Amino acid sequence: MAVAVPVAAAAASPLLAWRDPVYIAAGFAGVVAMELLLFQPLLASGWLPGLSGQRGRRVHRWVGGLLVLAVVIHVMGLWVTSPPDVIDALLFASPTPFSAWGVIAMWAVFASALLALLRRRLRPRHWRRAHTALAAVIVVGSVVHAILIEGTMEIASKIVLCALVVAATVVVIARLRIWAARAR
């Protein structure tokens, strides 16, 4: 329900009536990215049935790759439809506050993916702290970005999805901190 309802509501949005297909695809890539964020902490913590331990972490890596792809599709689709708006957003010169939050979240997604690729070169404790910090930036930036946009996503399902993403992330981060404190 948490992922099906927002997509269905966005698909039924009257704001899509006169939009270019590339713009619609870019918007849905953003919706999918937000939905993938819901799964990431649950996969990393092993809280999804049948996906605990190593299997959950492996799926977490694949979903992370899909998240990067969704963000790239989102930004590239917006670039195709309006390059000046994307340039303004990337330069933090956009008059819309949601743009800055989206750009911050985007760079945090890319940094997190790069960090995941370099995981074996870093100490586990440092890697975990950096990855968790980036995850928090991604979630805050993405949620604020989504909430501030008055667009394709229907408001009630968007708020519920964002609340679930924040709740899952906060609970998992709190659990990781307790675990890390015991390991010392």
Automatic annotation (TrEMBL):
Write out the annotated subcellular location. Answer: Membrane
Q: Which superkingdom?
A: Bacteria
Annotated Ferric oxidoreductase domain ranges read 29-141
| UniProt topology in membrane | Multi-pass membrane protein
Q: What is its main location?
A: membrane
Q: Which UniProt keywords apply?
A: Membrane, Transmembrane, Transmembrane helix
Q: Which residues form a coiled coil?
A: none
Q: So where does this one cross the membrane? A: 27-50, 62-80, 100-118, 130-149, 155-176
Q: Name one Pfam family in it.
A: Ferric_reduct
Q: Does the keyword Nucleus apply?
A: no
**CC terms in the record's Gene Ontology section:** membrane
By its UniProt entry, which InterPro entries does this protein fall under? Fe3_Rdtase_TM_dom
Identification of the protein by name: Ferric reductase like protein
